[in-house]
Amino acid sequence: MTWRATVLTLFPAMFPGTLGLSLAGRALEQATWSLDVHDIRDAATDKHRTVDDTPFGGGAGMVMRPDIIDRALGAVDDGRPMIVLTPRGAPLKQSMIRDLAAGSGVVLLCGRYEGFDQRVIEARNLTELSIGDYVLSGGEPAAMVLLDACIRLLPGVMGAAASADEESFADHLLEYPHYTRPAEWQGRPVPETLLSGNHAAIAAWRRQQAEAITRTRRPDLWAAYQSSR
Ligand code: SAH
Q: Does 224 fall in a domain?
């Protein structure tokens, strides 16, 4: 069954963008997922195809109108989760990506300017998600980030790299370090355990490394890891 992504944007030409290449691009060709991109301007009703207006209360910038956005959403609403990308949203987490990838797809609303009139977010009960504590000029790169993370988890996309259970965030831990040939490079040897062929020792070493790196870099994840055990 094809996982369906619908994107509402003022810049449809930005898609599929990075999602048309490599893993996601191949999966798109193979119809593991599909992409419908809708121009929000198509939902406008005046001859200038206006989608925004000045903010009540004053201030800089423009706000995207609730009536236009509601019409654009109404045209694609079929029960899939409807997500608006916004710096005010809940921080996107791998656990949410796993849930979304396990469903039938998503509808993503990309903002521009100052964002959306609050009423349409409430009326449509949109899920607000952020990709991090910084401000982009538009929601499109954020939508691509979310889609990329979902697509790689779809059945068959990562192929033999059945590593989704082991990678960063799988159990609140960051991943252990990787090494490949040459076994010694610029005077730096590969950790000996990895050359031992002892699978139990290797697993223990990796877990210990993952714990150490998580403890020093991400106290927040470390706390979640400890309380999950
Ligand atoms: N005035 C807004 C920022 C608007 S940025 C504020 O201060 O919150 C314009 C658009 O870019 C937003 O509507 C949103 O769709 C997108 N965007 C910007 N930063 C983002 C982030 N960190 N995560 C997700 N979307 C983001």
A: yes
Same domain? For 145 and 173 the reply is: no
Q: 8 CA distance to ligand 1 centroid (A)?
A: 15
Please tell me the residue having the least CA distance from ligand 1 atom 4: 114
Around ligand 1, the residues with Cβ closer than 6 Å are: 85-88, 110-112, 114-115, 130-132, 134-136, 138-139, 142
Whether residue 36 is found in the same domain as residue 73: yes
User: Do both 198 and 138 map to the same domain?
Assistant: no
Tell me the pLDDT tens digit for each residue of 17-74.
999 999 999 999 999 999 999 999 999 999 999 999 999 999 999 999 999 999 999 9
Q: Which domain holds residue 175?
A: 168-228
- 185 pLDDT tier (thresholds 50, 70, 90): very high
Terminal alpha carbon distance of the chain: 35
Residue 160 counted as domain residue:
no
Digit-coded pLDDT (tens) for 169-178: 988 999 999 9
